[in-house]
Specification:
Two copies of one chain form a homodimer. Chain A is α/β, with parallel strands linked by helices. The first copy, chain A, has twelve helices and twelve strands. Chain A has a six-stranded parallel sheet with strand order 2-1-3-4-5-11, sandwiched between helices. The structure holds a DNA duplex.
DNA sequence: AGATCGTCCGAAAACGGTTTAGTAAAAAGG
DNA sequence: CCTTTTTACTAAACCGTTTTCGGACGATCT
């Protein structure tokens, strides 16, 4: 069919192993032979068959990277951060789009095993027993992104420090003078962590905790805006004197804004709103949204670095990594004005 | 290292070829043997080595899918449409994130060749000679998405019918009574097609063509909003009596709205605005954007179908495919009111 | 001159599957 | 009862690389 290493060898009258050596940059080759081989390769338009190469070598230089939902730009940025570092280190990336399905993930892990990937970066929506079991069985380096695995699993992971971030946001809001602050909680592990921070904060400052949890399963978060709307409605009906809302997502924040707009309330004059993520349209003048910004690409990069460290055995048991977040202050939050 | 087909064979006292046959569903196997083999596979937790399998077979059941920019949700939806169909047909998808770089694409094609993919769906930003040459050399089925290749290339492609869609949009706007309609042109092939439609339309209806082209290279379209702003500025300064704007993208449309907002002009009272794509936030009440909606997932699906047809030789030379678009009417466009 | 040492290269054995060709035993046909 | 066909399986070649081991040959040392 296509031209093989044997053709190249024959063409320039050397052995197959010599050609292989040249290709892999061995030094025990005379310059003359090397040149002959390179010329032949170009002439015959020879391209090594990677599947054959993978078969003999123990490594494949492929690492798998799962994306929970390819339509969500957040994950895309995660991915591109990881990709960059991996490419620089000579690895190929095999993306897997999970579409928020646990089965797809399980299936992807099997594929990864069949193809003998060198490692995996995964972002499961949930850590089930079955998942942990599969990870154990495929016996390949895995690092987790954005969803903390059980400690017992031994899977290292990287995420933003949502606890600290939420604390900072709450500090910022109270510094503005707000004391009646509601919180819209995502139905995910991250949501839980931020709620913990929120409640801890409320307790420390002795202010009332007003959190509302989105009641959607984690695999349907794409209707975030509608949920923000509903959550804001509940907040407004339950605690009408709320002066600030910390939403678990910019999407939720904007959903909340839609509700307020309908009710004729204005942001930030009547109520301050903050989100999380710094999505690209958060800065539009209509929203001008104060938000807790996460290190999107940096996270992916860090996870990739951690994985490489494991694969190339620079570190046997890397610890978990929590990246810092920052508050981006925009116009949707202002000082609390008594009776204003 | 890990358990191979030979281990399975030994374990249940049959030959390697028998196990292979069982795995591949051959019928000349007694039920008894088959069961023994399946049991052994489960017991030993055997997983076939896909790289070895790929080496002997001529097909790999892998198809490559390039994404120009993983951060752009438009392409993501393309991809997920294609992915669905391909998975259903037993293919794995190997995504390639091009980050708008022609070099990355070239490199990806080389990889595809080394790994012996069965086929490729690509969305190049530009059709260069080098690209065409590489496609020719890798000799594998390719279909193009969203960027029309030169006819001579023989590469089939699928896209939305932008010419027809633009015509429809212009018809819609003139039906509303507008005659001074500006058009913001994308600096891509698609932009050119729509401009052609726009100009043809203007000529037919004897109205003035007012098109402004974004002067950004195709690989920097992420600043679309800023460009929409600038384009609207130019329109407003050049033709202050413009009553409607057809923007090449929702992003551009929103950028235009930002400008108008700054100038104290209101949409749609002072000027009607329409976009293209029906991005998820187009429906937000602040924008409520009339838009030309494209078949995002359907496109990907169609391209995948076309590729499968070629690979499985159902069709030797598929023609190009142009999908229909539709106008989604929202509040950003209204009837032209003379002196209103 | 013989022993020792580098340098450059080749033969052959993997790697883990698939597939072709063939065979022994059982069933069917005459 | 002998031949043909079918059934259920196996041996071995093959896919295209990498890698180990060793060999030839010229240079250097004693």
């Amino acid at each position: 069919m296509s031209v093989t290493i044997r053709d190249v060898a024959k063409f320039c009258g050397v052995s197959v192993s010599t050609v292989s050596r040249v290709l892999n940059g061995y030094t025990d080759i005379s310059e003359e032979t090397a040149n002959k081989v390179f010329a032949a390769i170009k002439k015959l338009d020879y391209v090594p068959n990677n599947t054959a190469r993978m078969l003999t070598r123990k490594d494949t230089k492929i690492i798998g990277l799962t994306i929970p939902d390819i339509k969500d730009p957040f994950f895309s940025e995660n991915a591109s951060g990881a990709e960059k570092l991996l490419l620089e280190n000579g690895y190929q990336i095999f993306y897997g789009n999970m579409e928020r399905s646990a089965d797809k993930l399980l299936n992807y892990l099997q594929q990864a095993r069949q193809m003998r990937f060198d490692g995996l970066i995964i972002t499961p929506d949930e850590w089930t027993e079955e998942l942990l079991d599969t990870i154990r069985r495929i016996s390949m380096p895995v690092v987790a992104l954005r969803r903390r695995p059980p400690q017992s699993s031994g899977v290292p992971f990287v995420d933003n420090d949502h606890y600290k971030g939420a604390m900072e946001m709450m500090t910022y809001l109270t510094d503005l003078g707000h004391t009646r602050i509601a919180h819209i909680v995502l139905p995910t592990g991250i949501g839980a962590i931020r709620r913990e921070a929120y409640r801890d904060f409320c307790q420390i400052r002795s202010i009332e905790a007003r959190d509302v949890k989105i009641d959607l399963p984690a695999n349907k978060l794409d209707q975030a805006r509608e949920n923000g709307y509903q959550a804001m409605k509940r907040i407004h009906e339950t605690w009408p004197d709320t002066t600030a809302v910390f939403a678990g997502t910019d999407q939720l924040a904007i959903g909340a804004m839609v509700y307020l707009r309908e009710k004729g309330l204005s942001v930030p004059a009547d109520i301050s709103i903050a989100g999380v993520n710094d999505m690209d349209y958060a800065s539009l003048p209509w929203f001008d949204l104060t938000t807790m910004s996460l290190n999107r690409t940096e996270m992916g990069r860090a996870a990739a670095q951690m994985l490489l460290d494991i694969i190339e055995e620079r570190r046997p048991h890397p610890e978990n990594l929590l990246l810092g977040t920052s508050i981006i202050v925009r116009g949707s939050t202002i000082k609390y004005k008594n009776g204003g």
